[in-house]
Amino acid sequence: MDGDGGSADVGVAMPKRAGVIRIEVDGLASGNSAWNRSGKRHRQADALHILIGSGRSRVLHGNAVPPLALIPLRGSVRLIDGESARVVHRNQVFVGEGGQRLQAIGSVDSLWIAFIAPANVWRQIFDVSSEASIPPPILLPATHRAGRLVRRAAVHLAREARRTPAGESEAIAAALRFGSVLLDLQSEFDSMIKRCPGRTLAQRRSVFVRLQRICNYMEVSNDFDLDIAGFARAANYSPCHFVRTFNLVYGESPYAVLIEQRLKRALRLVNETELSVTEVARASGFQDRSAFARSFKRRFGETASGMRERSQREAPHVLPRAVGI
Question: What DSSP string runs through 101-147?
């Protein structure tokens, strides 16, 4: 795959319940590429848009971008959505519910694919793979692990969409396979959604999304002043109702989930950066280094400095690659 331009529009009859779907695929041009344009051509409103980016020169930005799934195949992508910013790595897939400002900037060595479509198109794709029609919201905001199956489905869909002439069904079949993979990823939330308050599945899914937004914010924020009252306001709950509902759905307190998210971020920084332990603590949202050290050792079984030293000792020595090979 490369990040060059090119497009293919596919419009065919889908299986029962799926209706008709269109697929467009484009490589982002160098410089800032607004979501709602592809060169001089406006994008189709009711279509699955596949955007391919590479390097820092390919930037996606836009207002009220529809729901999307973004997968880095190489390197990483910095996503700024609304008021939060996150880095999506090669082994991850970011799923966003859409409706906010979005900016995606790849790392120097990045290659990534974004799949963007309005909710009704995602419904068409998911309804074929699901035993029952899924009420909105269709995509549940989260960052999942992207194993080989996920990456292969994404690449296959992008390739089929680029090469398939209009009127053929290979790209549609690839889109359904990719939708099935996303549906499997979201199935990990089924038990949590069942525990959400609400008389209907749509109401329970809506409650889950409100709580999941808070979890996603915990994942990317290093704000020392985060508190229950702020989380409750963001979820449109009273503090007591928020804590009770959060505990019911996730089986843990909001504070416990916040600490776990920060420790996971610290673990990644210890293994992937050269930041000092003090800098790792602050970048992960811990103001007190001693509290960070205790929490890190209790969670991972060794100190942050000890883990880094062990990883460096165990890392295989890589010889410089000869020029021309």
Answer: EEEEEE-TT-EEEEEE--HHHHHHHHHHHSSSPPPSP-SPPEEEE--
Q: How far apart are CA 118 and CA 48, in angstroms?
A: 8
Q: Supply the Cα-derived Rg of the chain in whole angstroms.
A: 21
The answer to whether the peptide bond before residue 67 is cis (omega within 30 degrees of 0) is: no
Q: Which CATH architecture has domain 221-312?
A: Orthogonal Bundle (1.10)
Map residue 71 onto helix, strand or coil. Answer: strand
**Distance (Å, rounded) from C-alpha 5 to C-alpha 43?**
14
Q: What tokens were used for 170? A: 């290979």
Could you tell me the residue ranges of all domains in the chain? 10-190, 221-312
Is 124 exposed, middle or buried, given 0-12, 13-18 or 19+ CB atoms closer than 10 A?
A: buried
Exposed, middle or buried by CB within 10 Å (0-12, 13-18, 19+), for 224?
exposed
Find the DSSP H helices in the chain: 119-129, 148-163, 170-186, 190-195, 201-220, 228-235, 239-250, 254-272, 277-283, 289-300, 304-314
CB atoms within 10 A of CB 65: 22
Q: Is-above-0.85 flag for pTM?
A: no
CA distance 172 to 179: 10
Return the CATH number of the domain spanning residue range 10-190.
Answer: 2.60.120.280
- Per-residue pLDDT tens for 58-116? 677 777 889 999 999 999 999 988 677 888 998 899 999 888 888 889 999 999 999 99
Distance from C-alpha of 220 to C-alpha of 84, rounded to nearest angstrom: 7
DSSP conformation class of 29: P
Residue 298 identity (one-letter amino acid) = R
